[in-house]
Design a protein that fits this description.
Length: 230
């Protein structure tokens, strides 16, 4: 019985460590240790039911071990704040007053497409609509809108033109523009190469959201080429 308790504890700690290292992409609405507990209980309950050669008591002992580990973690969670941050993680601010925090995205194994998808799910379609955005420790996305966000008379979906230094050929074709058109815009903004650009989006009104690595974002308007609409 003692060996079952020890083995279950080791598996639990290993799974918890892996889930924390994998970042917020893999977590839904639960804390990491709650997600691990859910996975383990489901598996431990199935093993003795599927294999009659394994005594039922072994499965029950493992599930009870998980219960005691859960109660122990909750106790530490309430009594020790540093422990809570280590086990459950802490919120990650991915958008602030300067724009996208690239280091926080990478730390949580997220990229630009993940961020834009989360924003759309929250009802925001333009990166400059949000003053602050963060991923909670549970992985849930939360955003605070900008109070001074301009009210657009014409609604148009922004598309990503440059993503982490690379042009999106599909969106260049969609907007009926080309690399030369955006290279000219970058030169006007005193940017030597698209490789230094983390994100550039364009909407149908000619509004551009531009952010280079290590710099504050810029939002401005340009004249679209004739026939460029979507």
């Amino acid at each position: 019985m003692g060996l079952i308790f020890l083995r279950t504890t080791i598996i639990f700690i290993a799974l918890l460590a892996v889930m924390r290292l994998m970042g917020k992409r893999q977590i839904g609405e639960m804390q990491p240790f709650e997600f691990v507990i859910t996975l383990l209980i489901a598996e431990l309950a199935c093993i003795p039911m599927a294999d009659i050669s394994i005594p039922l008591l072994y499965g029950v002992a493992s599930v009870v071990t998980i219960f005691f580990l859960h109660q122990l973690l909750l106790l530490f969670d309430l009594q020790c704040k540093p422990f809570k941050a280590v086990v459950g993680g802490k919120p990650s601010v991915v958008i602030n007053k300067n724009g996208i925090d690239i280091s926080q995205l990478k730390r949580n194994h997220l990229d630009l497409s993940d961020l834009i998808e989360s924003m759309r799910s929250a009802g925001y379609f333009s990166l400059d609509e949000v003053a602050y955005a963060l991923y909670e420790s549970s992985g849930q996305f939360t955003a605070m809108p900008r109070e001074d966000a301009p009210r657009e008379e014409k609604v148009s979906l922004p598309v990503v033109i440059i993503d982490d230094g690379k042009y999106d050929q599909k969106n260049l074709a969609l907007t009926k523009t080309g690399r030369a058109y955006f290279e000219r815009i970058l030169r006007e903004q005193h940017i030597r190469s698209a490789r230094s650009v983390f994100v550039l989006t364009l909407d149908g009104t000619g509004k551009i959201y531009l952010q280079c690595r290590g710099e504050r974002y810029r939002a401005f308007r340009v004249c679209l080429p004739e026939g460029s609409e979507w």
